[in-house]
Design goal:
This protein has 2 domains: 84 residues, Orthogonal Bundle (Arc Repressor Mutant, subunit A); 245 residues, 3-Layer(aba) Sandwich (Aspartate Aminotransferase, domain 2), CATH 3.40.640.10. Helices cover 43% and strands 15% of the residues. It binds pyridoxal-5'-phosphate.
């Protein structure tokens, strides 16, 4: 069935999109019995037609299994279904930049040294000495004296988050996160058993009163923050607020877990305050005690390297090493060898990354101005995306319909802890230039059709 549909079609697409999100990130665990269509219609104050259409769409995408007599249960789509999805056509879901200029040449150089790799032990929970020393030296050069003993190499930044959550969070601990935030981080803390509290962030920055008073009132065990080119808003926390935050966290007994996966993505931010943990070092702890810093080469260099790390006090590093074998037994040495060379040449490589990001940001800005002038798209001074404010709520419906048209997209609620933020959309500027314009044009077209109620329904399968 194709053809113009009204508000019902918007409602079903939005509902299906929201439920998909909740199932995908584990907030509705697979196997959960969902209400019957009739019950949900009554509970949600929606028509039965809307619920029936939403459930049908969820069954089609593999997120729901319905059996006569035993109801509908949440399900994770089969891998084959996932790979059949049309995401590849226009991928706006992730903000994954291509490999940085110069990486190919560097890999060719490293290849000559590959036979030496057998000199490394095959089993190493901490990481190669050379890479740990290179990472420590870079912190030291950026104003935070660091010894290699404070570094554990992980398999990417996500692993650094998950390992930290697994090692340090006790069930029922409270973890404070920003909202919006990087969704796989709150997933990792939630899976470790944490109860979440959120503090708001917008493209204009943090609500410091809210953040500081929440620390004081709730005294969370951990606060997970992204203070530089925050994903998804692009905001950076000013230096004076960092000092206040460290002070308040220390008073509350809160460990700050600072994710610096995006720290090297400045395009034209007029200041560089160095590593966040410098403020903790100043505020009493000689080595930055009270702050755990997470790093990654994925955004600045290439996510295919799968190199990340944790910088922490040695006692924390020991706890991470102890917890690690339950999940993995070390980062592959070949990638670490590449990582060591990369970190040694970081400044030169980052200059290329900056040029790339500047061009991409300009292209996305131009496409948004051309196709969607009614949306507010604050101009970030770094990072990989724009946190666009739509002119009405409806981000999930937009993402759901775009998905049917071959474009994958992360709606605002994907980044919120409580499913809010329907007025926002993260639009990455990492896609190829031609895709940026085509993608934004499709977004604007679908948005206008949703408003007019003339959206063509997805073809029946
Ligand atoms: C803030 C933040 N931290 C960590 C990660 C994980 O990165 P990776 O595991 O690729 O290093 C991401 C990826 O999007 C991110 O945005």
């Amino acid at each position: 069935m194709t053809g113009p549909l009204g508000a019902e079609s918007v409602a079903y697409a939005e509902l299906a999109g929201r439920v998909r999100l909740l199932i995908a990130d584990g907030r509705i665990p697979a196997g959960t019995l969902l209400p019957s269509e009739r019950e949900l219609a009554a509970q949600a104050g929606r028509s039965r037609t809307t619920i029936v259409a939403a459930y049908r769409a969820l069954r089609d995408s593999g997120h729901l299994v319905s059996r006569q007599g035993s109801g509908s249960r949440a399900s994770l789509p089969h891998l084959a279904e996932v790979s059949k999805r049309p995401d590849a056509a226009l991928n706006f879901a992730g903000s994954i930049p291509p490999p940085v200029d110069g990486l190919r040449e560097l890999i060719v150089e490293v290849t000559a040294a590959l036979p030496d790799i057998t000199a490394f032990p095959g089993f190493d929970l901490l990481g190669n000495d050379g890479l740990r020393a290179a990472v420590a030296d870079r912190y030291t050069a950026r104003g935070l004296p660091t010894s290699p003993d404070q570094i554990i190499v992980t398999t990417g930044g996500q692993h650094a988050i998950a390992l930290t959550a697994q090692a340090l969070v006790r069930r029922t601990d409270v973890v404070l996160v920003e909202s919006p935030t990087y969704p796989h981080a709150f997933e990792a803390f939630r899976r470790a058993g944490a109860r979440m509290v959120a503090t708001p962030v917008t493209a204009a920055g943090w609500d410091m009163d809210h953040l500081l008073s929440t620390l004081q009132r709730v005294r969370p065990a951990i606060a997970y923050l992204i203070p530089d080119f925050h994903n998804p808003t692009g905001a950076s926390l000013p230096a004076q607020d960092r000092a206040r935050l460290v002070h308040a966290a220390r008073a509350a007994g809160t460990m700050l877990v600072v994710d610096e996966a995006t720290v090297d993505l400045s395009i034209d931010r007029p200041w560089d305050d160095g590593p966040f943990a410098r403020h903790a070092a100043r505020d009493g702890g000689a080595t930055g005690s009270g702050v755990i810093t997470l790093g990654s080469l994925s955004k600045s260099i290439w996510s295919g390297l799968r190199i990340g790390w944790v910088r922490a006090d040695e006692a924390v590093v020991r706890r991470l090493v102890q917890a690690r074998p339950a999940g993995d037994l070390g980062t592959p040495p070949i990638e670490q060898l590449v990582g060591e060379r990369v970190v040694g040449r970081m400044d030169e490589l980052l200059a290329g990354r900056r040029r790339f990001l500047r061009g991409q940001r300009a292209a996305l800005g131009a496409a948004l101005a051309r196709h969607a002038p009614g949306w507010r798209a604050p101009w970030p001074d770094g990072g990989l995306s724009m946190w666009v404010q739509l002119d009405r709520p409806g981000s999930s419906a937009l993402a759901a319909v775009c998905r049917e048209r071959g474009m994958s997209l992360s709606a605002g609620p994907a980044f919120s802890v409580d499913g809010s933020l329907e007025r926002f959309l993260r639009v990455p500027f990492t896609a190829p230039l031609a895709d940026l314009d085509r993608g934004v044009r499709l977004l604007a077209e679908v948005w206008a059709q949703l408003a007019a109620g003339t959206m063509a329904a997805p073809a029946a399968r």
